[in-house]
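Consider the following assembly input.
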Amino acid sequence: MKNNRFVSALVRFMDGEVSFEPKAKEEEIRRESTHKEKTVAERYYKWYEKSGYQTFKSAYIVAAVLIASIIIGALLLTVSYLPPYGEYANPVNNEVTERYIEKGMEETGAVNIVAGVILDYRAFDTFGESCVLFVASCSVMMLMKKGKKGKTEEMLENYNPKRDPVLKSLAKVLVPFNLMLGIYVVLNGHLSPGGGFSGGAIMGASLILFSSAFGYRKVRPILTEKVIKIVTFVSLTFYAVAKGYSFFTGANHLHSIINPGTPGRIISAGLILPLNIAVGFVVTMTMYSFYALFTKEEI
Amino acid sequence: MIAFEIILLVFLIICAIATCFAENLFSTVMIFESYSAIMCVIWLLLRSPDLAITEAAVGAGVTGVLFYITLKNVKQLKEEDEPDEE
């Protein structure tokens, strides 16, 4: 009982709501304390009411300043140990970067060196990132999705957007071009800046725009929960299998049937294009499922 | 070009500080998104267009939408007026 009160007082303090009614509370305490002994919590509560609050507040400020200055000092100290900017002997300028820049195009077949690095040399990192997205969307689904299976149509009708002509006419113009841009960025990931993640984010954003402008009813026939699950799963599995094959053959010096092709062509760079598409699908589905689950607690 | 970069960086710092001190949460999210937009241009000037595209799509687009939905769910946004019956 007392403990609860203390907690609620703390919560009120955290909310910035500091107004107490000490008189009423004290009377209450006196009334209660007449017929039983004072417990530790009770005495603590009384002290808190009298002078503890001010003590706590000042101690809080002092501790905040102290901790913040310690952290700032530690960070600045770390910065002072960093090597000077632009020196040749810095750890940035090692043989790895050199190799990427000099032989990247030859080995991976990608004109865009970044795509070559993240989807060929460091492909397992990208696989981990895609898995993180998948796990994130799974946890959002677990947290936000309502337990009831199958909402009625009337309930879902509440989540339909209110009539907004500006949003609708803008979305009509923007969504096709946005989707096209996203697909372009994904498909040209190995030739020009961009790639699976950026293109997927653009596609997801345009899907969000479409869904917020025209309502769930238009999106639902295409993008159901099942579709999202299957597409994400198939993309991730494809990524794992394709890259596993490539790593297996490459690491064991076996002959690989995948050749980089001519750099600069749209169908080149070996596995980078399909991997980009897989990552793009995962990101698009994750973005859209976040939006759908946040708004209507269902996909 | 250096002057342009300096202006952008100053705007970036102003946005970062204003995010903390904005009056209500709606404008906080707005300023946060403009921070992302400025950061996108800075990525371009630093010659990393890959990051610029991602920053524009994720930072200035999707994150803001998710923030707005969250604010609406925790009732921090004003409810929009009922549409007129036509």
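Residues 36 and 60 of chain B are 5 Å apart (CA to CA). Ask yourself how this observation constrains the way the partners meet.
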